[in-house]
Amino acid sequence: MYTAKKEIEHYAPSIINEIPQKRQNYRILINYNGKSIKNLVKIANVIANARDAEISYLNVVNVPIQLPLSSSREIADKEVHTLENLKKELGDSDSTGYLIRLSHDITEAILATIEEQGTNLLVIDFDDLKNNRKLMSLATCDIIGVVVRDNFDNEISNVVVSYDRGRHCDLALDVADSFLKSQGSKIRIVRATTGTPEKELNIINKINEKMFDLGWQKIPLERFDVRDDTLVPKLLQNFNTDKPELIMVGAGKQSEQAFSPKTLEIITKSKNSFLVISNSRFSEIHARYFWEKIGPRLKENRYFYRIYLLITKCAKYIQPKPKSFDDYYN
User: Fold this and answer.
1) Maximal CA-CA distance, the chain
2) Residue 142 covered by a domain
3) Which run of H or E residues covers position 201?
4) Can you point out the beta strands (E) in 148-282?
5) CB count in 10 Å sphere of residue 71
6) For position 240, what pLDDT does the model report?
7) Same-domain pairing of 86 and 205
8) Same domain, 209 and 280
9) What's 274-329 look like in SS3?
């Protein structure tokens, strides 16, 4: 743990690292984007209020590869000023944290922060996510890519979940539940039927079980038959209503490497705002989870605990020490 933290500080050093004073089990990380930060904050606050979560803001300063990180701190002066303004606008909270990192690789800095902070959910502008295969394939947390259109403020009162049979849409229902609890948003579920009657029955049963677990009653479920070539037009027709609506879609089967082409087509052709949701298989598995479960048992057994202390002490001294700080970047 100590070695990992030191390594992170070597290739993504922190300029500001203000972790939340009150740590929560569910942790949300917002990747700073100047154009959409206010809307990213709105989405994160809705989820945080429903799940009693903490929120951290990450701003990664991209340093040109030819410049050493150790002598590039002045590049971040503008971002520090921007962060101070954001803190004044949002107000102080013991469940809010702020981080600024320097890095030659923004994605590496985001991934390192996810691991370091034990992040469960990353909220990010979809433009920063859609072509980032590295982030999608290596992130160990759930991800919400936010697509903001002109009527976003009115759309969050009406949420549509476009349900396919992937795990991503199960998370979309959980996110929609946060909007219901925090905002009182109205919800409807849309299901484009593409499989056999037997498969569709299983999917509908799965949806009903999820709705029962969430305690939902009288939530409309709209179903319509489509062929593969009519899937996108039919969904766009369903989304094209007079009522402003926020659409939640799953990342698709290819989400570990890229988003589904149909998902991208729907987002491009629709005028609605979207939350594109990727459900990681590892979002609930973090080092702190294992330590909370195993740590107390380990300490109860003095022999195992002594072995643990000996291993951590050896790991600390085995790591080679550089001659100077700049050696890490050259």
Assistant:
1) 68
2) no
3) helix 197-214
4) 158-162, 186-193, 221-225, 246-250, 273-278
5) 12
6) 85
7) no
8) yes
9) EEEEECCCCCCCCHHHHHHHHHHHHHHCHHHHHHHHHHHHHHHHHCCCCCCHHHHC
Per-residue model confidence (pLDDT) at position 175: 96
Q: Which of 130, 161, 190 is the last residue of a domain?
A: 130
Residues 125 and 11 both lie in one domain:
yes
Residue 287 has a pLDDT of 44
DSSP calls for 60-105? EEE--TTS-GGG-GGGGHHHHHHHHHHHHHH---TTEEEEEEEES-
Judgement on whether residues 280 and 153 belong to the same structural domain of the protein: yes
CATH at 243: 3.40.50.620
Q: Are strands 14-18 and 96-103 parallel, antiparallel or unpaired?
A: antiparallel
For the segment 123-181, what is each residue's pLDDT rounded down to a tens digit? 999 999 999 989 988 999 999 999 999 999 999 999 999 998 778 899 999 999 999 99
**How many angstroms separate the CA atoms of 90 and 187, rounded?**
28
- Average pLDDT on 3-18 reads 69
In a domain? residue 135: no
pLDDT tens per residue across span 279-298: 886 555 544 444 445 555 55
Range of the domain at 255: 149-285
Of the candidates 128, 14, 131, the residue with the CA atom closest to the CA atom of residue 76:
14
Q: Is 47 exposed, middle or buried (0-12, 13-18, 19+ CB in 10 A)?
A: buried
- Please report where in the chains the tokens 């979940």 appear, as a residue: 161
Both tokens of 96, joined, read 């809010």
pTM of the full predicted structure? 0.81
Contact 54, 63 (CB under 8 A): no
